[in-house]
Amino acid sequence: MGLLALGTPLPWDEAKKHADQVRDLGIKQLLQIWNKYRKNERDVLLWGDEIEYLVLAYDEENKNACLSLRQAEILAELAKNESLRKAGGNVPDSKEPAYTSEPLPTFHPEFGRFMLEATPGAPFGLTWKDLLAVEGNMKLRRTIAKEHMAENEAPITLPSFPMLGTKGVFTQPYYPPTGSQSRSQFIPDEAINPHIRFPTLAANITSRRGMKVAINMPVFCDENTPCPFNDPTIDYDRHLYPEDDDVRNGAAKEGHIYMDAMGFGMGCCCLQITFQAKNITEARQLYDQLCPLGPVMLALTAASPIFKGFLADVDVRWNVISGAVDDRTEEEKGLKPQKDNRYVIPKSRYDSVSTYISQDPALRSEYNDLDLVIDKDIRQRLVDNGVDERLATHFAHLFIRDPLVIFQETLSESPDDKADHFENIQSTNWQHMRFKPPPPGGNIGWRVEFRSMEIQVTDHENAAFAIFIVLLTRAILSYGLNFYIPISKVDENMATAHHRDAVLTKKFWFRKNLFPPRKPASNGSQTPAPSCPGTPPPVEDEYTLMTVDEIMNGRQDEFVGLIPLIESYLNTVNVDVVTRCELAGYLSLVSKRASGELQTGATWIRDFVRNHPDYKKDSAVSQSINYDLIKAVEALGSGQGREAGLGDRLLGRFG
Ligand code: GSH
Fold it and tell me: Which helix (H) or strand (E) is 59 found in, with range?
């Protein structure tokens, strides 16, 4: 989350009148960036991670683990200490230890007023020293966050808070579930970050789509779960807002956990990795090559089996967020004939990527096999101004969306040397990869963000997945690896990743041969090497269904596996023994998650609930189960409980 602009936000009825103007200014800004930075060259690949936390508040008297709504106060405390340190002063009356790592991590707000986000403070490089510093830096972030919280508060890294939206008390302080911004039956507006961007986003999504968001996740049917399952927490008789009619008009589906607010989605936490490439070409290559990995890594990092107090029949957060910010109208969803809207749009704003963008000859046109909805005028304008067709198409696709939050003041300011209008559309296209042009005026390059992974309970796991992705990018660039499959298959994989225990029970489309064709011998002979392709094989022959185990660990002689591939990359570079051992530990965690030797967070949490003495085998997660679960999650996150065997199945006995 970057800097949050301030101003007077327009309600949807006003904002929509300025949508074309914002798009126009946004493209103008994009073209300025393109002209200024497209030839940028840098040598160093930099990267950084973002960790999102839930802030807990325990009510020990009632044995209740709640969400603390003190985000603003905690951030203010953090900022106070940070600025004092930057000024070189001591922190008076502070129990703050002298941190040795510089620069210090930085903390940011997120959508939930119960969330924090932390970044390393400065990007990591690619030295082994930097790679090995990742886990320590993540631990430091957790420690610093904890030190700026009240005694009964703690940061935890869990993608979704199990009790969010339940009937009991799940926030501190408590607020009844009302509020004109979300109009939710379950989550009070007070649980949203009060910065005006967030309530406005929530309200304008509802206004734009013409009803509240409706998120239905399948319930996990246990022995005593009522069947058919009708979510018992829905109040069909509430008459506070016109949107209360939604449930009377069938918004809640049988057999599903029903959620009705943006907070259910954007209140979830993830682990994101951003890479700065050496130039735009490399950024486009990384964007494409990491794209097919998105769903696989979602399944492998699955850690969200509970929503609104019920065990779900899914393990991941993705579709909850997708539904939580789906601002499409009935017309755009193709449910009504087109009258007021311009397009039928197959996906939510938060969804999987729909088009590859690289200029790599390995990108066959058959891979971009979705019927992409684009703004043709915008594409033409970009092409007329020198942007190549592929990139122009990518942005023309993002720009089919309306800007959701427009600050009145920005409409009359000069758009030059800024990116606010461009970012208005770009950063509310929450796809599983993001291609990020350099912000004007700074020294940041072309970046790519990998966004699908779920946050993990411990920093060891978070570091393992971050390091895995970083090493994979190294292998991709150094071997020129090719992960392309038709992008429609990536969509299919995204749906597959949601299945309970997909990591062990499902198969994902994946490319069979990752290596580029061998180049003709450079001995002057004109005869191509035998493997040099003439006519490429049919695209369908290039990919097949594989388990996550096969993708990660390999399949006999047929498929090399990503971890052996990374290992062979490490064999080609100069790594000292100690570093190699440490890296092996991280890779081993990823490998064992894929093989099932270790559990995903989702399976571990599900087992914890199902084995709890208070669990009635009816899918319901009670306050007492939640309390014990959260205590265990917090203990693991802060490095405790291992000697008692807590988390062995998640991390391994000696992990
Ligand atoms: N927490 C989300 C997840 O689990 O995938 C990702 C974070 C996110 O997308 N946050 C929203 C946002 O707009 C908050 S409304 N972030 C800024 C951005 O995407 O540029």
Answer: strand 46-59
Q: Which of 52, 54, 111 to mutate to test the pocket of ligand 1 (most atoms within 8 A of CB)?
A: 111
Question: Per this entry, what is the length of the chain?
Answer: 655
ipTM of the shown complex: 0.98
pTM above 0.90, yes or no: yes
Q: Which residue has the higher pLDDT, 540 or 525?
A: 540
Q: Is the dihedral of CA 445, 450, 454, 459 positive or negative?
A: negative
pLDDT digits (tens, 9 = 90+) for 45-72: 899 999 999 999 999 999 999 999 999 9
What 3-state class would DSSP assign to 350? strand
Buried b (16+ CB within 10 A) or exposed e, 444-463: bbbbbbbbbbbbbbbbbbbb
How far, in Å, CA of 532 to CA of 359, rounded?
20
CA distances from 50 to 326, 422, 460 (A): 24, 22, 15
* pLDDT bracket for residue 529 (50, 70, 90): very low
How far apart CA 30 and CA 459 sit, in angstroms, is 37
Nearest residue (CA) to ligand 1, atom 20:
427
Calpha distance 595→173 (Å, rounded): 43
Q: What is the DSSP string of 180-211?
A: TTT--SSS-GGGB--STHHHHHHHHHHHHHTS
Could you state, in order of their start, the residue ranges of all structural domains in the chain?
A: 171-266
Pocket of ligand 1 (CB under 6 A): 1, 52, 111, 201, 266, 268-270, 317, 321, 427, 430, 451
E strand or H helix at 543: strand 543-547
Residue to substitute in 110, 161, 193 for testing ligand 1 pocket (most ligand atoms within 8 angstroms of CB): 110
